[in-house]
Amino acid sequence: MRVLGIIPARGGSKGVPGKNIKMLGGKPLLQYTSEVALHSKYLNKVVLSSDDDAIIEKGKALGLEVPFKRPQDLATDQSPTLPVILHALDFYAAQEEFFDAVCLLQVTSPFRKLEFLESAIQKFIQNKTDSLISVLEVPHEYNPHWVFKEDKEGELKIATGDTNIISRRQDLPKSFHRDGSIYLTKTEVLRDESSLYGDSISFIESPKDFHVNIDTLADWKKAEKLVTYFNK
């Protein structure tokens, strides 16, 4: 299976200005993801998708392939991820280079280890699902069996649709939320179904001790606290 690694990193971040190349623990944030991606034995190519000249320059210095500049209409706050991926795939297809799957690695999740990435790709290949995502377990107090939604009559109903509440925490089934660190998807699913997920989704649990998804200044401060321990 030929897998294209895509690192999306647009300019114009509002939550943390310039975060993609902002220094964290002595190196730019982008470097954490690029180092892992470039050492992967399963990624046939790793490309940086960016609209920002400073990010592009830094990416090239870090050894990333940057054969194009992302169009401005794919680099706004509202730009969805799928067109960014398809833009990269289309670029390589025009060069007669094709990939069976895409591995999306967001810069905002800097603390993934190489071993974790390799395990994710291995599981994706072995399971033959449409996609694989990295996840974290949902704390029991937010388990969907203990979450309620308002119905048309203004009453609360269990979010799962069940009529009886599971009373014991020990009886709750595990539930997960995507954590943004790794997305793996077959190219045919991306193209034919316009989906990052498809019909079958496998998963890998991220180590929660070093998880952070940097979107706000509070997230950045958390990353600054974690980076010392992560690098040990």
Order of helices and strands: EEEHEHHEHEEEEHEH
Order of strands, main sheet, comes to 4-1-5-9-6-10
Question: Whole-number radius of gyration?
Answer: 19 Å
Uncertain spans, ≥5 residues at pLDDT below 50? none
* Oligomeric state of shown chains: single chain
Helix content: 25-40%
Q: How many distinct helices?
A: 6
Sheet with the most strands, sense and barrel status: 6 strands, mixed
Mean pLDDT: 94
Secondary structure category: alpha/beta
Q: What general outline do the C-alpha atoms trace?
A: globular
Number of strands: 10
Distance between the termini: 34 Å
User: Approximately how much beta-strand content do the residues carry?
Assistant: 15-25%
Overview of this protein structure:
The protein is of the alpha/beta class and 232 residues long. It is 29% helix and 21% strand. Strands 4-1-5-9-6-10 form a six-stranded mixed beta sheet, sandwiched between helices. The radius of gyration is 19 Å and the shape is globular. The mean pLDDT is 94.
Task: Give a brief rundown of this model.
The protein has 232 residues and is an alpha/beta fold.
Index terms:
two-stranded antiparallel ribbon; alpha/beta; 6 helices; 232 residues; 6-stranded mixed beta sheet
